[in-house]
Design brief:
157 residues; Hypothetical Protein Pfu-838710-001; eight-stranded antiparallel beta barrel; globular
Length: 157
């Protein structure tokens, strides 16, 4: 199903978020194609394959997204076709008091040392409670897009 994803991204100041996590997921993902803000991503989340197509962002906060679950063997094969490096991370799920969810990604490999949080919103102007471990907002800074990180790893900055 196609939907619009509206999210804000932040750097994370400390590992205090881990105590608030209600679940974790190991994620490996790569990019089959990317051009003019569009991307085709393959992801393995735990043992589930996912294919995602994202459109460009007009306002740096919202993007059109289409996602479908695919067989794990297909996802593994598609990862071998990806351009650039493979993103490897653990995602921590942290409920926010309003009922929204923070997803905090702790990166490994060439992006080790980078920890980012994102929160999905109904509207770009929605208010939410900012936990003490939430740092500088990087929404719209393409350096922090996973597709950019796969080509220009954090360790090379």
């Amino acid at each position: 199903m196609i939907h619009t994803e509206t999210e804000r991204k932040f750097l994370v100041l400390s590992s205090a978020f881990k105590a608030q996590a209600t679940e974790t997921h190991r994620i490996k993902q790569g990019y089959i194609a990317r051009d003019n803000g569009n991307s085709v991503r393959v992801r393995i989340k735990d043992n589930i394959g996912i294919l995602t197509i994202k459109g460009p962002s007009a306002d740096d906060i919202s993007r059109t997204e289409w996602e479908i679950e695919i067989p794990l063997q297909d996802a593994e094969a598609l990862l071998r076709l990806c351009h650039g490096g493979i993103i490897d991370k653990t995602r921590y799920i942290i409920p926010e008091p309003s009922g929204r969810i923070f997803e905090v990604d702790e990166f490994y490999g060439d992006n080790e040392g980078l920890v980012m949080a994102e929160i999905e919103l109904e509207n770009a102007s929605d208010a939410f409670e900012k936990p003490s471990w939430l740092g500088q907002e990087v929404t719209g800074d393409r350096h922090y897009y996973n597709s950019y990180l796969s080509m220009h790893p954090f360790k090379t900055w």
